[in-house]
Each structure stands twice: as C-alpha cells, then as structure tokens.
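testing teh design pipeline on a random one, pls ignore if ur not involved
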C-alpha cells in the first residue's frame, strides 16, 4: 500500500510539472523563435505561478523521494 501512495505522489508531481509547461507553451515557443530578455521578463511577469512551480519542481520531487 505504501508503494502505491509513493508512486501516486510522484505522478502528481509530474502532472503538475507538465501542466506548468503546457501553460507556458506559447511563451516558450516565442522565446525559442526569437530570444530577448524583455520577452523572458514578460513571460516571468505574466505567468509567475507556472514559473515558480517549474523552479521548485526538483525540490518537491527530491522531498518526495526521501
């Protein structure tokens, strides 16, 4: 039972990360086509929640593994 809950928590972490990337898909495409720091700062200012989730995702994953 504990192994099932452990895998479920990791799956939730992965799903949250994928949803964050999905939210940023247009900004990522624009930055790949023509990178500017203004575009990067705009993406960070316009979408603070997905950016913070992506920055904290390794911490969440590491915390769940231990």
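output:
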């Amino acid at each position: 039972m504990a192994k099932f809950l452990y895998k479920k928590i990791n799956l939730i972490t992965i799903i949250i990360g994928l949803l964050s990337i999905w939210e940023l898909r247009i900004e990522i495409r624009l930055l790949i086509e023509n990178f500017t720091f203004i575009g990067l700062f705009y993406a960070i200012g316009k979408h603070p929640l997905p950016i913070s989730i992506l920055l904290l995702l390794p911490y969440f994953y590491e915390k769940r593994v231990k």
